[in-house]
Amino acid sequence: MRIFKTKKELQDYLETARINKQKIALIPTMGALHAGHISLLDYAKPLSEITVCSIFVNPTQFNDPKDLEKYPRPLEQDIALLEVAKCDVLFLPSVEEMYPDPDEQWHINLAGLDEIWEGEMRPGHFQGVTQVVYKLFSLVQPDIACFGQKDFQQVMVIEHMIKVKQLPITIALCPIIRDEHGLALSSRNMRLSEKGKHQALALFRTLQFIKNNFTSKPLHEIQILATEQLEASDGIALEYLAICETTTLQEANTIDANKKYVALVTARVEDVRLIDNMILN
Ligand code: PAF
């Protein structure tokens, strides 16, 4: 695997690939890699000739400086995992390399997708995400970019950015990878004790409850029952639980057979913020 720390090195390398008409897949990450990230790479491999994984803990998407500081950075382990997974290129830039102008301004109209749910809880988060993802897209110019369904709202936001900026990039929405008990894999799980991991399973149970009842009960009733169930679970501090239409992420009251729906949930366990979701139809 080649490791590049500067934009120039990366671009010089990809230039040749482009001349040779090789398909490029990008997997943007913030490191602390786990099987969920590796599944993105496995998804990309058969669809591309060159897989580029980026590891960059992007400061502009953190609204809580403590969260940024505490973000795990097990770099040696990440490199070893990518080597085993046969990633072709790792892009590992510094903050200065990605943001040479520390006062750089960025704003994109995300049609309100950045103001609800995660966007409401973390003001500015999706502006920061689109800022860095746009930089990575411009740099790598991938044919395909892979993102995990676990950050469902993030994928909807990036799809929207692609439309606004008219970028010729296909987005792959890759399924959530769960542990054997159902806990969605996340870099943040490292901060949970065994007890916390067990308590966090309530999120998965509640999402399953919503899916199992999706067509048999009115949506507002399911939402109330699911919220009660989660609030009564040990160690769970619920932030939000919602049943939404997938593209607008507006809360749904009725089911339209032509639309898709997703249940979104966010809660704190042992003060670690966990998010999960499940597509319902
Ligand atoms: O999902 C993430 O890890 C990050 O939000 C991303 C897409 C790599 C942008 O920093």
> What are the distinct ligands in this entry?
pantoate
Number of domains: 2
**Biggest sheet: strand arrangement:** 1-4-3-2-5-6
What oligomeric assembly is this protein in? Answer: single chain
Q: State the share of residues found in helices, binned by percent.
A: 25-40%
Sheet with the most strands? 6 strands, parallel
Strand content: 15-25%
- Find the structural class using helix and strand composition: alpha/beta
Residue-averaged pLDDT: 97
Low-confidence stretches: none
Name of the CATH superfamily of the largest domain: HUPs
SSE order, one letter for each helix or strand: EHEHEHHEHHHEHEHHEEE
Q: Which topology of the largest domain does CATH recognise?
A: Rossmann fold
Helix segment tally: 10
Globular, elongated, flat, extended or rod-shaped: what is the shape? globular
Q: What is the distance, rounded to the nearest whole angstrom, between the alpha carbons of the first and last residues?
A: 39 Å
Rg computed from alpha carbons, rounded to a whole number of angstroms: 19 Å
Report the top-level CATH class of the largest domain: Alpha Beta
What's the architecture of the largest domain, going by CATH?
3-Layer(aba) Sandwich
Number of strands: 9
